[in-house]
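Weekly modeling sync, notes
Attendees: S.R. (lead), two postdocs, one rotation student

Agenda item 3: backlog of single-chain predictions. S.R. asked that every request posted to the team notebook include the full sequence so nobody has to chase files. The rotation student volunteered to paste the first one in as an example of the format we agreed on. Action items at the bottom.

Example entry:
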Amino acid sequence: MPAWLRTDYICFFGAFLSALGMSQLAPLLPLYLHDMGVTATNEVAYWSGLAMGVTYLIVAFVSPFWGRLADRRGRKILLLRSSFGMMLCNLLICFVQTPEQLVLIRFVQGLVSGFFSASVTLVASETPENKTGWALSVLASANLAGSLLGPLIGGYLASTFGIRTSFFVIACFLGAAFLLIFFLVHETFEPQPDTVPHSFKELQNQLPHLHELFIIAASTFIYALSMMSLQPIITVYLDEIMPPHTPHLALIAGAVFAATGFAQMLSSSYMGKWIDRIGPRRILIGSLIYTAVMTIPQAYVTTSWQLGVLRFLTGLGLAGLLPSLNTYISTHSPKHLSGQVFSYNQTTQFLGYFMGSVGGALFMGQFGFTALFWGTGLLFLFNAIWVYTKLKA
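Predicted structure, as returned to the notebook:
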């Protein structure tokens, strides 16, 4: 097996577990906080939101630092740092006794996270150019599948082994990822610390395609904003369209929630090959239009299976978005600066995740579900028109 292919598969495994480790906490937080003695509904909501949101915010702000370090020291060492740090954080969560301790560890988890950004940079620099789209598509599917399936897997582990044990299991998996990276990933990139810019302004001066990269960063933000504006309200939406007192609502919501991730995993390899064949710009525009068309009808479903089918079909389109964005960055930025470029792009992505999760719920509360689905679909469509008119091939 070629070294670049082995690296991609190992990073796939690590990216999935990293995203899983960050997202599996969501369905467990209320139960875990209750075990700590937090029983009032408003306090549970407050601590849950703080514990979830702090990680995404910290990742957004520290990503540029890790990106500069990747360009100066190499990319493999950052994968080792992230996998080991995530493992320790999950182990520590097993032993927390207060909400303050949980938030503190989630804060630290944000500081040491960044596995996906580092793995994208490593895979992009190690993979032959004619295979970059495919490799990054596989990687993106792992990251998003981990984010989507994390709550489902976290709930299963907690119900089977207990909440605290579930974090220990995830920590063991992350430890396995650390060992695989340490022994099997070989990096050919040779850092040149003297040529690495020390500030964003210095970085701008060395990027010949700065305008196009700004458009990509804005598109990444729109992608993340649109994704997270819908995901947190799926369960609430199902509760509204289904008959009162429907049994197993949480299980049905989890299945609908996971349908998007399964679709992306199924289509990622195929989409990556098309990115390599016809270029990331065309796939990006097509995926944006398709996703918009699949999102709007979700406002009018009347059954859970209708929503599940549409979410699955939406996932087929989403499979082309993040890989095409990352492939465009890879082919339009110097290799020795790709760590910083990808890290700044990740900053916009995580800001989009945070603002989408908060803004989507506020928008839905003000204007309703129909307006939220229409607004999200139109946002994807606007992004497609913008990319078509402003982004060069």
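Discussion: group reviewed the output briefly. The first helix runs from residue 3 to 23.
Action items: rotation student to repeat for the remaining queue; S.R. to check formatting next week.
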